[in-house]
């Protein structure tokens, strides 16, 4: 399942929970999907951080 599909399903389950409630299986699915989304965000953020290179400051000219 692509991340876009995960987000769609998370949103669907949220709306359903507000309107009619979720079954225990749906609650479990919602938790798993939310964790998958969070893990994806963390992985992407970590990848961005690892791509950053520190540039030493230039000496001030006086």
From TrEMBL:
Q: Which UniProt keywords apply?
A: Cytoplasm
Gene3D superfamilies membership:
Helix hairpin bin
Broad class of where this protein is predominantly found:
cytoplasm
Give the GO cellular component terms, alphabetically.
cytoplasm
Its localization reads:
Cytoplasm
Q: Which HAMAP family does the UniProt entry name for this protein? A: UPF0291
Q: Which family does it belong to?
A: Belongs to the UPF0291 family.
Q: What name does the UniProt record give this protein?
A: UPF0291 protein CLMAG_59040
């Amino acid at each position: 399942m692509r991340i876009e599909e995960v987000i769609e399903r998370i949103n669907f389950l949220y709306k359903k929970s507000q309107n009619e409630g979720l079954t225990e299986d749906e609650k479990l699915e919602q938790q798993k999907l939310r964790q998958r989304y969070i893990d994806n965000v963390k992985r992407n953020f970590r990848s961005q951080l690892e791509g950053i290179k520190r540039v030493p400051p230039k000496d001030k000219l006086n």
